[in-house]
Amino acid sequence: MLVACGWDARRRRDRPFLWCIATAGAGLAAALLTAGRGPVTVFGKVTPHTFRWLWPLGAFVFFAVAATVGRRLTRRAATSVRSVALVGGFALVTLVLAAINLPYANEGRGPNSQEYAIPAARDLGSHMGSLEGRGPLLVDDLYHRGFAEPYGGAVVAELQRRGIPFVVRDPQLVRQFGPARRFNGHNANAALLLRQGDATLEAPAESRRVADGEGVPATEVRELARLKTQIGEFIGQRGLPLNARGQTALDEGKLPTLARSADQGLDLAALVATRELDVMIRGGYLKLDDAWAKRFRRYADLQNQWDQKTVALFVGPVSAVTRPRA
After folding, report:
1. Which of 202, 213, 300, 304 could hold 311 in an S-S bridge, CB 3.0 to 4.6 Å?
2. Same domain, 173 and 304
């Protein structure tokens, strides 16, 4: 279709639309090259979220073809009135389609599903000045912390903004950042390590803290500590009041910490550290009155916020980053 439209525009010596068709053709060629060199992810080479840019390119190609045909029709129009009507019709269709495609809802997918991380990421980036002059840094650890982890990309973007060189070892990351940033075993001075939640309280072995990111207000951090104390005293005095659903989960082995500690008393520290207490609260496994149910739910909510919105960076030896699996 582009070739036919280009031939027709060239025959009619319609230079503006000949360039329009040429631009669309060049865009398609660049798209083919880009798609072939796109990053390989755990989901394979072709994933929808890495090819969304095809939509505006497709829209432009459609425009180039439709506009060229429209241009030919207007030239054939017998009167100026018909020509204006045809152009007006195209303009109206374009306006309607543009209005229909305006985004009006938060889909809750992609980066906007992790808006909770924005304050902590900004705070973390503002404290990364101590890393200047320490590169190159091996940053694989930033990307091996679970699917769609929101802080790794933000940290790398801040490194680039500050001009701090970095390298990667994972083949998928090399494909994403380019061969010039491949770790060859000698081109990194240290490794950059990222930790969240309780893991930020203690530096990994042979490393030291260089930046913190706090997304939970100090008042809520103090509230979380107070609730932990209150709930600890409650469990110490009364035990865990499991309801029928919770007892069934215990009998079926779905609460392993409780099962292991049944003969020796409840291990409150383990319940908190493994977040099993949070699971029981959210799963509705406890029988509580309204006042205590409110406290337990508030604790689970604040604990989840702490785990997600508290982040820290550490600099350690390159050996601290394990090799990716083949």
Report:
1. 213
2. yes
